[in-house]
Amino acid sequence: MIKLVPFTPADFSQLIDWLDSEQLLTEWSGAMFSYPLTPQALAWYIEGANDFANPEVFIYKAVDAATGAAVGHISLGGISERNRSGRITRVLVAPGARGKGYCAAMLRALLAIGFGELTLHRIELGVYSFNQAAIRCYRQCGFQTDGVLRDVARYGNEYWSLVEMSMLEDEWRAREAAPVAPAAD
């Protein structure tokens, strides 16, 4: 359904267009970037990315394999070789592609890289508690809730709580080995 390709400077303007409000940028990146997002900020973001010889962060554009259209963005960072762990960050489905299963496809592809190619033991992520669609997607993909960091981020006059979730390599392998159920009519 999708393929992950390295996110490059050629993709900057599209991502900037997708992140068209301060709130959406904050939901996507926390305090990492300020609004409006700029090509200079994205150049810093991708510096040293996608180096399998020296893994720090892997940043991808998700492309619909059938149409070639960009449908999302996702990254895997915080790589600890010692702990064999990493953290999925900055997940975004393109505005016109939401609700079509791309988020789950992006996660499955990134988990295959993390657990399969990088041989990680644990992959975690954080999602703001109000993003119920993302939480449902992550649970459907096999992530377990580890806990909630209450009022961890302030946006305007409100505080946002962060749901911490993770998956372990044995859980991923069991899901990969499970037979696929036939589609319902």
Key features of this structure:
globular, 185 residues, seven-stranded mixed sheet, 6 helices, Aminopeptidase, alpha+beta
> How would you describe the shape?
globular
Q: What is the helix fraction of residues, given as a range? A: 25-40%
Strands in their spatial order, largest beta sheet: 1-2-3-4-5-7-6
Low-confidence stretches: none
Number of helices, counting only DSSP H or I runs of 4 residues or more: 6
Topology, number of strands: 7
Number of domains: 1
Instruction: From the 3D structure, determine the CATH topology.
Output: Aminopeptidase
What is the CA–CA distance across the termini?
Answer: 20 Å
Strand coverage percent = 25-35%
Major β-sheet, in short? 7 strands, mixed
CATH class: Alpha Beta
Succession of helices and strands: EHHHEEEHEHEEH
- What is the CATH architecture term? 3-Layer(aba) Sandwich
Structural category? alpha+beta
The CATH homologous superfamily is termed: Gcn5-related N-acetyltransferase (GNAT)
What's the average pLDDT?
Answer: 95
Radius of gyration: 16 Å
